[in-house]
Structure formats: C-alpha cells, structure tokens
Specification:
Elements (H helix, E strand, L loop, with lengths): L9 H20 L2 E10 L2 E9 L5 E6 L2 H4 L11
C-alpha cells in the first residue's frame, strides 16, 4: 500500500460479496431481484436477498457467501 492511500473500506468488501450473492440468487431462481441487505446471523453477517418468483410471490433467500459453500479439501478423503 502506498503512502496516502486508505485501506479498503469493509463496506466495499461486503458490497462485492453482496453483489455476488445477488447474482447467485438471480441465477438459481430466475426471479426479479427486489433488494438485498446484510443481516447478522449466528455471530456473522449473511446476505438476505429479496426477489419475486415466476408466480409473482415475494420471497427471501439467505446467502451465507461463497466461502461457506466450499467443503474443505482434505488429503485423507481417498482421492488421489
């Protein structure tokens, strides 16, 4: 980091993960996105996305983030 540059804002990082969450929900549901917000859940923040489904119903989907989706890689799982 160079002199005079500020560290990235935490909101900027959350905003990026929020946009990723919105994209994931839109792709998986095909619905119209109505909004998104960060909400506290079990000691951390998750993204809650509000969307309208194909029947016109308003629904919510919680997206914990991409890091929580990936199972840990282990060397002892029998794969080579």
């Amino acid at each position: 980091m160079q002199r005079g540059q500020a560290a990235p804002e935490p909101q900027a990082r959350e905003g990026h993960s929020m946009s990723d969450a919105v994209r994931r929900v839109q792709r998986s549901t095909g619905g119209q996105i109505l909004g998104a917000e960060q909400v506290p859940f079990e000691g951390r923040n998750i993204t809650r996305v509000k969307y309208m489904d194909d029947r016109g119903r308003v629904r919510y989907m919680d997206d914990p983030g991409a890091a929580d989706r990936k199972p840990p890689r282990r060397a002892d799982n029998g794969e080579q």
